[in-house]
Design goal:
428 residues; 18 strands; globular; alpha/beta; TIM Barrel; 2 domains; 10-stranded mixed sheet; single chain; 24% strand
Length: 428
């Protein structure tokens, strides 16, 4: 498959930045779906460029003897020697730690092509010097098996010790949705992700925050919802989750925590639990274990899905399959300074349950009515880079679960891999 790199050797080392190492990362803007490139430790030497391609580069043509950056005729240097492909964009780093917004669009249909062997796909980013030497390289990454890839490092962690990437309101997405064309007043404040459940999992998400609605008079009665807005049918998520754990042997938390519509009758809860069990029952981790269960114990059990449930009476009725819900550490803040203060104040406070930092801005009702915020996409685009900086520099070492809106706009899986590796080293 063109433009997709399959894994040959598993040696993922994101964020491991040495003093002279140039670090690149590429994310996707939620509102425009354009690529954004983050750089750390740029050399700021004349002639250095960041080049975007849609295949993995092996070598670029020599750019020396062509003058300064402003004088180079890029039309004559569009081909590189090995790949015979075109350069999609080229950018000059302006500062040591830089954030470059591009006009290059990501096509979400590309995400449907990946599988459990995919590592890089769609776009590659290279930092090259004036002679075309590649000094650093990155790509749009999938992480379908990151837990198994670093099993030796994390297998003895329990579920409260491991850093887990999470998606807030994981079921709030639309298929084939183009925010620049299809956005409405409703979708502006109800959609929180751009990937379906399969794609979220393939890109490394291992905690799924699920909110439920019951619609008695429709063919599919159970839907994932966001507040009062109906989103995707639950069976879609369950089928994708089941197929994913069968294919990858990864461990996933499926957190069914809120029941927004139609759950006044306890029988509806029972019906939902039996419905979920009919799809993924054979893969459910024994809930009589506490959250202190280790990853190795879960893998040895041959079951991969931790199912939580937000109704205590149901947990008492089905104690073998329903864990207590993940504790949400939710600030309910609509501006970054307040959210940052809240998130900084969380760490060092542990509970008996797994806990998730809910690192997204929350609009208030009047702000939604007046469109004060510009929508959840804009809020995520504004806050995700700041969340990344906060956790990469300050909070990552003590984080259990980090849940975000529009997870492709923040390298949350890379953060998890990095800090899980650091935690292993500190235990040795």
């Amino acid at each position: 498959m063109r433009g997709i790199a399959k894994k040959q050797v598993t040696n993922q080392q994101p964020i491991e930045i040495k003093n002279d190492q140039i670090f690149l990362n590429v994310i996707i803007n939620a509102k425009t779906r354009s690529l954004e490139i983050t750089i750390k430790n740029a050399r700021l030497i004349e002639g250095d460029l960041i080049v975007v391609t849609n295949s993995e580069p092996k070598e670029f043509p020599k750019l020396n003897n062509l003058g300064t950056n402003s004088e180079i005729n890029y039309e004559k240097t569009q081909k590189w020697k090995v790949n015979a492909d075109t350069i999609l964009g080229k950018y000059e780093p302006k500062q040591k730690d830089d954030w470059i917004k591009t006009n290059l669009k990501f096509n979400y249909e590309e995400s449907e092509k990946i599988d459990s062997k995919t590592e890089c796909y769609s776009h590659w980013i290279s930092y090259i010097d004036k002679d075309g030497n590649i000094l650093s390289k990155s790509c749009i990454r999938a992480y379908p098996t990151w837990m198994n890839d670093m099993k030796d490092s994390i297998q003895n962690f329990n579920m409260k010790q491991i850093f887990i990437p999470g998606s807030h309101d994981a079921g709030s997405y639309r298929l084939n949705f183009n925010p620049e064309k299809d956005e409405t007043v409703i979708t502006k404040y109800s959609l929180t992700q751009d990937d379906n459940i399969k794609s979220q999992l393939m890109h490394g998400i291992r905690y799924l925050d699920i909110r439920m609605g019951y619609y008695a008079f429709t063919k599919d009665k159970f839907f994932m919802v966001h507040g009062i807005t109906k989103q995707r049918p639950l069976k879609e998520a369950l089928e994708q989750l089941k197929n994913f754990v069968i294919e990858t042997n990864e461990i996933v938390i499926f957190d069914v925590r809120k029941f927004e519509l139609g759950f006044q009758n306890i029988e509806v809860h029972r019906e939902l639990i039996m419905y979920i069990e009919s799809y993924i029952g054979e893969y459910l981790v024994d809930a009589t274990h506490s959250w202190d269960i280790t990853l190795n114990e879960i893998w040895n059990s041959g079951k991969n899905i931790i199912l939580t449930y937000g109704d205590s009476s149901m947990r008492n009725e089905f104690p073998n399959i329903l864990f207590n819900i993940v504790q949400h550490r939710w600030g309910n803040k609509d501006d970054w300074s307040s959210l940052e203060e809240y998130l900084r104040g969380l760490h060092g406070h542990l509970t008996a349950s797994a806990q998730s930092d809910m690192a997204e801005l929350t609009p208030n009702a009047w702000g939604i009515i007046t469109d004060k915020y510009g929508g959840l996409r804009k809020m995520a685009d504004d806050v995700n880079p700041k969340v990344y900086e906060l956790y990469s520099k300050h909070l990552g070492f003590t984080t259990n679960i980090l849940s975000v809106d529009f997870h492709r706009g923040i390298a949350v899986t890379e953060l998890a891999i990095h800090f899980n590796r650091l935690r292993k080293h500190t235990q040795q």
